[in-house]
């Protein structure tokens, strides 16, 4: 067993760590044994565990857990990048969220992580032209997690959504890699136009709680959007914007705002 786990750590260190933490969790709290076994220890890899967890959460009287699980398994089988992105999301959440003390927490308990993984399957379905099924995933994610992400929205790796309530991401939005955002963020449009109408968020961006970024505008790499801001114009890379409407108030303050998670304004522009 020890030799097998050692090999697994070399091949898939994230999954190996989750398995170890799951075993520890069962020893520490036996009442969680059923949950942990069904959600983690019963599965041969992270892909299957993700399919189980997402399907369990989204199932209802209109679509059974078994059918949803088959859909998720199909998506993960066709596109291994889905689970690779999930691994990056788990690592990002552990590194940036002070309330996250184990890798298994996002998989079991964090609705921001779970909603992003459901969206990744919905986006795969959208790209397969299975749009009605993709809309079902969007609908159920909104109902279950309180997060509304259009299936066509493109979202990168290493995403951390803290608290995650009331997140809205529109159809033509693009979110880069290693982005962090807090609850009540909106990446929305400004009217009824049907073309490219939603924000493009660069890599390494930090978006504070309640911030609204509206329209087909870009938020440059490694920038910060202060909590409660309403962004209506382009944001240059490596800057901080704040206010209603948002204005540049200074530099980003560090090389990787999404990792540092510093949301205070230090000095003026």
UniProtKB/TrEMBL annotation:
One of its GO terms (molecular function) is serine O-acetyltransferase activity. Pathway: Amino-acid biosynthesis; L-cysteine biosynthesis; L-cysteine from L-serine: step 1/2. InterPro entries: Hexapep, Hexapep_transf_CS, LbH_SAT, Ser_AcTrfase_N, Ser_AcTrfase_N_sf, Ser_O-AcTrfase, Serine_acetyltransferase, Trimer_LpxA-like_sf. Residues 14-118 form the Serine acetyltransferase N-terminal domain. PROSITE patterns: HEXAPEP_TRANSFERASES. One of its GO terms (cellular component) is cytoplasm. CDD domains: LbH_SAT. SMART domains: SATase_N. It holds the Pfam family SATase_N. Belongs to the transferase hexapeptide repeat family. This is Serine acetyltransferase. The gene is cysE_2.
